[in-house]
Write a structure and sequence with these properties.
The protein is an alpha+beta fold. It contains 1 helix and 4 strands.
């Protein structure tokens, strides 16, 4: 896992899996994080007809849970 900060964002890169950047919603203690950018660094083979939205949503949920479990 590679973590860096720049331009008010936190950047996470997991080589060969994904990269993303997050930013705080504000300066208060309870203000949450939001994704600015997410990019998957792998390809899924096979017939993806009708699956693109579902697959992307599932991968985003998985990435979200893994990132925040390490914070």
């Amino acid at each position: 896992l590679i973590c860096t900060t720049a331009d008010g964002r936190v950047f996470f890169t997991v080589p060969k899996l994904f990269e993303c950047s997050l930013c705080l919603r504000g300066g208060k203690k309870d203000d949450g994080w939001f994704f600015v950018h997410v990019e998957f660094l792998f390809n899924v083979g096979g017939d993806r007809t009708g699956m693109e939205g579902t697959l992307r949503r599932a991968l985003l949920l998985h990435v979200w849970s893994r990132v925040f479990s390490t914070l």
